[in-house]
Amino acid sequence: MQFQSQVLSNIEVSPGYYRMRMTAPPAVLEAAAGQFVMVKVSRAIDPLLRRPFGIYDMGVFVTPYTDSGTQTFLEILYKVVGHGTGMLADMHQGDSLDIIAPLGKGFDHGAEDEEKILVGGGVGLAPLYLLAKELVKTHRVRLFAGGRSKEDVLCITEFERLGVETYVATDDGTLGDRGLVTQVMLKYLAASRTPKRLFACGPFPMLRAVAGIAEEMQVECQVSLEAYMACGMGACLGCVVKGVNHSAETPDYRCVCKDGPVFESTDLSWE
Amino acid sequence: MTKPNMSVEIAGIKMRNPVMTASGTFGYGREFADYMDLESIGAIITKGLSLRPKAGNNTPRIVETPGGMLNAIGLQNVGIDAFITTKLPFLRTVDTPVIVNLYGNSLEEYGELAARIDDLAEVSGVEVNISCPNVKQGGIVFGTDPAAAAQVVGLVRKSTSKPLIVKLSPNVTDVVAMARACVDAGAEALSLINTLTGMAIDINSRRPVLANITGGLSGPAIKPVALRMVWQVSRAVKVPLIGIGGIMSATDALEFILAGATAVQVGTANFLNPAAAEEIAAGMESWLVEKGVKEIGELVGALKC
Fold this sequence. Notes:
The complex is a heterodimer. Chain A has three domains: 2-103, Beta Barrel (Elongation Factor Tu (Ef-tu), domain 3), CATH 2.40.30.10; 107-224, Rossmann fold (3-Layer(aba) Sandwich), CATH 3.40.50.80; 227-271, Ribbon (Dihydroorotate dehydrogenase B (pyrk subunit), domain 3). Helix content of chain A is 18%, strand content 36%. Chain A has helices at residues 83-89, 125-135, 156-161, 181-191, 204-217; strands at 2-14, 17-23, 36-40, 51-62, 70-79, 96-103, 115-121, 141-147, 165-170, 177-178, 196-201, 220-224, 240-242, 253-255, 262-264. In chain A, the strands form three sheets. Chain A has a seven-stranded mixed beta sheet, sandwiched between helices. In chain A, helix 3 links the parallel strand 8 (141-147) and strand 9. The mean pLDDT of chain A is 93. Chain B is an alpha/beta fold. Chain B has a single domain, classed as TIM Barrel. Helices cover 32% and strands 19% of the residues of chain B. Chain B is built from nine helices and 16 strands. In chain B, the strands form four sheets. Chain B has an eight-stranded parallel β-barrel, surrounded by six helices. In chain B, helix 7 (250-259) links the parallel strand 15 and strand 16 (263-266). In chain B, helix 4 runs parallel beside helix 5 (175-184) and helix 6 runs parallel beside helix 7 (250-259). Classes of the chains: A alpha/beta, B alpha/beta. Chain A binds chain B through residues 1-2, 40, 45-50, 98, 100, 227-231, 233-241, 248, 251, 253, and chain B through 24-27, 31-32, 34-35, 53-56, 59-64, 66-69, 71, 73, 76, 219-220, 248, 268, 270-275.
């Protein structure tokens, strides 16, 4: 659905990374973890296109000092990478945004008796937080979070508050282990025998590594992809990725916006 | 106050108002059904269809540029057969004319495609794409050479009795010559403009942003070029014109009508506002009411200059 939204808060959670809370109609609460929103940052023609963001959190709070009752909200986690996100970072409480949400296909929680393993990097942690919130109700959840430096490892405290056991690795060793978080995860998977399911969101090379590990360890794995997109609803065909059956003769393109952003890792071509 | 008459007729296709959706920006219609009333606009033009399914280009396929976007989708589409079996049934339920945009890799393919849709009752007309700049073997040759364009249009004209619209490329030296050639070959209406060929560069990687290197520029950035071309062509040919290029608002649409277009197509605006076409149609009507204009037809080509 398309709706007008007001910014409730917009906080820099780490240098260059922001967490924005905004108003939303109650129906948004039916969104699944992994689904995303398209945000029109300005009414002007620059920036022209909406920007896609995974839903970090959503909920309802009681509005203070009013009789109006409750207010539904959405939260996104974003990194300032260009003009659009730069303008978003300058927004304040009360500013308005035009939102389309929820879009795409979210995560499938998987079987009952599995341990749930989340792995993410940077703003890739956003959809994993909402997923963790749902999964901790019924499952043991572990998070492997990575980044270049400690500034890129976001909102770990929030995951811990949910009761998620967290493991961190950074390229420069400023937080957690030094190196790739996928290697830390691999070590854990190799040492443990309980049935598991992986949920990953982050930069493409990380997802490719996770998909490779999942295949090697024979663990089911879902990945949430990021892509440039113009519409978010399957019309522009700008955000496609190659499916597992893709070849020059038998093209198999899938829309990140509509067929994803969450895919079974075995459904995609990782070349 | 009585409502103004917004209806227009293009090549025999009767539309409730002049707002159509541009090919490639509106999927096959159904994608937008949750966001707008598909029966509030004049016509739906489908994603460009080819004889066989088409994979399209590698990614990245799109990038935003100031006031616009570049795309090099490469005409990815389900192909005419799958369109008929999987997409057309939904469109049949919508009481709005459906115009099929056709794209051939060769002269023969254009003819075959036109023949395929000729007996489909639910297709109100054909828009021939001779101007898509992205596919190396194709469109650009027909779209930039008046004689080649006339050949395609002539063959399509022979292959179908459906109303025939030809979509013109702006990437030519003389758009008027192209327009005349298409009309002489049997085009009953012209739509213009398609995207302007452009490119974007990433200085850090020293690479083009798009995998295809070049792409088609659309959006508000191209509106002045589009207006100029519609105005030029309107003075040279007698057939109705459909104005396209960066229409984001009712004001933009009315500018094209004044320049000489009978109808307009909303394209890139659908991506950022899925209800854009409906809102533009409503906005045009409000303006007519406000100005006391009784019918939209009074404004076609009413530019004072």
